[in-house]
Amino acid sequence: MSDLTNAAELVALDRAHVWHPYGPMPGTVPSHLVESAAGVRLRLAEPLGGNRELIDGMSSWWAALHGYNHPVLNQAVQDQLGRMSHVMFGGLTHEPAVRLAAKLVEITPEPLQHVFLGDSGSVAVEVAMKMCLQYWQSVGRPAKQRLLTWRGGYHGDTFHPMSVCDPVGGMHQLWGGVLPRQLFVGEPPAGFDAEVDPAYAAELADTIERNADELAAVIVEPVVQGAGGMRFHSPGYLRLLRELCDQHGVLLVFDEIATGFGRSGALFAADHAGVSPDVMCLGKALTGGYLTMAATLCTAEVADGISRGSVPVLAHGPTFMGNPLAAAVANASIELLLGQDWAAEVKRIETGLRAALDPLVGAPGVADARVLGAIGVVQLDHPVDVVAATEAAAREGVWLRPFRNLVYTMPPYVTGDEDLARIGAAVAAAALKG
């Protein structure tokens, strides 16, 4: 086939053959062709909302912390490419992966000492759940096979993670009859600054106590529930979960795939609460949005427990586990983040988003507007018109991707004040149009 240089031809082929996330085949919502990206801007092949260049208000699904085409990250990939792009991780190791694991142990809560490098966020959660189930099997408590979580959560699209996503409001109702049956409590009461609700605390305590003999772990998204509804809750519930899990012999898993690396205003959302989980999942921003990679960290107790079992290995090994290119750019991204005052940048973004979104409270069709760190959310009282809202944002020169009843933004940390103001205006326009 000859080179395809015509944008219309590419879009037609895309529509005919490419299955996009959370969409039918063929697609019913347009996919817009991106020619290139640099800084915080995406350049489209054809205009959207009258603009070919759009500020990315999504960080490419929350991953591109440093924007696009960053010279430091580009160089890290190029340098590693000259040495090796990939090598199997079974029986072999390499410097980028070793340094990445050591760095993750250094910057995450202290009890987390061991790192499993996987392919994606869903795989990180799969591995976390497998670790917890195998731990109890290995230490002689095979009845502890279920997991508990709260409603409103999202942990990935592969099978076991689907079982701990919201069973009604999530995207996986179709599989309810074949997924493992997990335990759910109600959604955590909303509000990052809210006091812990005694009735909800009692519900958590009672449910964990009554089911402790069959519970392997509690798994939650700490502080921010992402794709399940973009809700914020008090760090106090994380402290309560830590106490209850310790009291009743249950492992605690924090899914920090969306919140890791500063997004909520703390380097990890667990830091808001000053507690550590037994297992932590990382992904998305791990490589600065360059390559797919995720990590599952655990304590020495969890690893030692598995190693004492009749099957003393964690039987999981992705082909591209510990990929050198991904590990090299992850190292560079983490160094780039920690080498600057990232917390001040996130706070600056938070201030800018509050200025733009707070006035929307009480506007027609708006149920709520909320901001935490570099996350801004407008919740509508009706399902969003995705096409209309996307075009409204594009007319403001911004790319947004609304879903359900939410128009939200998670901009790159390098977004300047002028671009941030445009993102805020675009969220408002999309919310009022959608």
UniProtKB/TrEMBL annotation:
The keyword Cytoplasm applies. This is Adenosylmethionine-8-amino-7-oxononanoate aminotransferase. It comes from Kitasatospora acidiphila. Its EC number is 2.6.1.62. GO terms for molecular function: adenosylmethionine-8-amino-7-oxononanoate transaminase activity; pyridoxal phosphate binding. Pathway: Cofactor biosynthesis; biotin biosynthesis; 7,8-diaminononanoate from 8-amino-7-oxononanoate (SAM route): step 1/1. The record marks 22 as: Participates in the substrate recognition with KAPA and in a stacking interaction with the adenine ring of SAM. Belongs to the class-III pyridoxal-phosphate-dependent aminotransferase family. BioA subfamily. It is found in: Cytoplasm. GO terms for biological process: biotin biosynthetic process.
